[in-house]
Amino acid sequence: MDISGIFLTLNEEAPEDDAYVSIRYGAICTFLKLYLNHEAYQLQPEVTTFLTHYLHVLEELMGKSKERSEMETLARQLYREHKKVLDFILEHGAGSDFALAAHRFFGDNPDFGQGFEVKDRKYIYRGLNDRMFSFLPANWHEALGGFDLNWEGCERWWAGLPLICWVEIGTHADGKKGYLKLTAEVGPIKDYDFRKSLIERIESTKTDQRLSISFTKGAKREGALYSRFFNSNVANLEDVQDSEDILLKIENLMNKFVDEFDAVARILPEFREYGSVKNNAE
């Protein structure tokens, strides 16, 4: 009696040794299914478990696994239902949870200067990336004449106005927890007297001790360019990838500073005269 070795093959590859006979995975799967369906009662439980796992391995290799097919069907369904979100994640990567939350305020493709609302307060959108978005309170924007005036020194700075605000996300050393920070800043105004006066007037709003406004000692120094003035302006995050919590914390943080936004807005019309009408060619 001749005895031949068996060469298991996925795609009917020929064995290198003529003493072997090719048998496709598909034939083994067919045999195992029939055997397990009709003869499993004769086997020890451990043997049945082993053969069942082996059958699943062969089906995976052939791309015929029921579980795999179900997962592929589910994946296609999820992609159809959440295409915009998944495409956004693929484009922006793992750091996009902050951006996903921020887009809830101003839509998928916001334009510079577009209005948006947070807790019924109006703001003007400037820009967004995976770690921050910048904006102006609408009453600041209006008090400064919108985008119709030129502010010398600030032409290429953020929104081209003397002030800007932004919300940014940071991550702690553990990679999971983090924080949100709301910042307001006076920019690189060329006219020193104008810049110094603007800072002094913003400081003067602090007569209301509830306001979280203060500058560093060097803010009014000649040659200073960027001067931040919000404090107590951080919200902690338990998970920097929880976009729903990020959204809620952004809303709460911005709402916390509405009094500061309004206080600054009240003094800004005093400085509108420092802006010059833009040339139509700009």
Task: Describe what this molecule looks like in 3D.
There is one protein chain. The chain has 282 residues and is an alpha+beta fold. It has 2 domains: 5-76, no CATH class; 93-277. Helices cover 40% and strands 20% of the residues. It contains 9 helices and 11 strands. It has helices at residues 25-39, 45-62, 66-81, 83-92, 97-106, 138-143, 192-204, 243-256, 258-267; strands spanning 5-9, 20-24, 115-118, 121-128, 132-137, 149-150, 163-171, 178-186, 227-228, 234-237, 276-277. The strands form 3 sheets. Strands 3, 4, 5, 7, 8, 9 and 10 form a 7-stranded antiparallel sheet that branches. A two-stranded parallel sheet has the order 1-2. Strand 4 and strand 5 form a beta hairpin. Helix 1 (25-39) packs antiparallel against helix 2 (45-62) and helix 5 packs across helix 8 (243-256). The protein starts with a strand and ends in a 5-residue tail after the last strand. The relative contact order is 0.10.
